[in-house]
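Q: My labmate handed me this sequence with no annotations at all. I'd like to see what the chain might look like in three dimensions before we decide whether it's worth expressing. Could you predict it?
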Amino acid sequence: MATEIITEREVWDPFVKRSPYGTLFHRWDFFKTVEHHSGFRFLPLALRKGEAIHWLVPLFLSRKFGVKTLVSTLLKSAVPYLGPVPSPDFDGLRQYRRESHLLLLSEEIRGLVREHCPDFTYLSPGPGFTDIRPFLWDGYDAGVNYTYVLNLSGSLDAIWKSLTTKKRVGITHARKMGYAVRRSTDVRPIYDMATRRYAEQGRTIPLISHGYLADLQRTFPDELEVHHLLLNGTIEGGMVVVMDSRARAWLGTTRTADHGNELLYWSVIEGAKTAGAPLFELVGANTRYISRFKSGFNPDLEAYFTLTRRNTLGTLAEKLFRLVRP
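A: Here is what I predict for the chain of 326 residues:
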């Protein structure tokens, strides 16, 4: 299998769209926006056998503070997971063929590590990418993370009834209080409110900048939906929703009074159902208080892995600069 750098969107994006593992986060212009705002170098790699592409491998390379990193996603991009994309027929292969493809993938990444000699290497394949054994055999440390996914195949009434009583009462109460949700194209209020909330907690917002988020919204106006939560005409919260193979609650503000946040989520769920999305992902289920809030919508739990290798310098840099999300 040969590795090559892809230089054209027209080669990259059609493959991503055909693969069941491809997401909006894997799209060419998404990576280029991250590269522009982060200063990391984007490595758009393809693994070919003959004329056929078997894998796309998006990676970012950087050398900062004397530390060289090779990662599939950046903390400041706010992307929850991002890993290699297999060919559309990967899941239909026999087990021995899938394992052969995975071994070839791990061998090619091993070659990249030898070439670039990173102090810190991080891969974050998403839900469904469960066979990480070749990377464990290569000495990677594995971590496990969780996300919630709500099946939207049933009727909206059935989905509503599956919510906890507390959630339904809270949503009804929020409506009586005058909360409403409206579509917008303005991401600034969401960014500003989230920045203040993180500052109150002594933390830095996990976004490169407002410009990064605004550029993404302009680039993907149909796939990145902006929803504002209003009370008497004042913006009290909001959410940026990714619409690709599933709807994803990507970015949002934190809790509001009077159950406004429950109404925001329910409104987005209604919109995703109306748009024909098969699934709605309430992105992230790794924090206890956030999980308690989201589990009331009766979602299923999905696990996904992270893979990390680091030398002594990489270990120190990870602690000092939080190279990946906690």
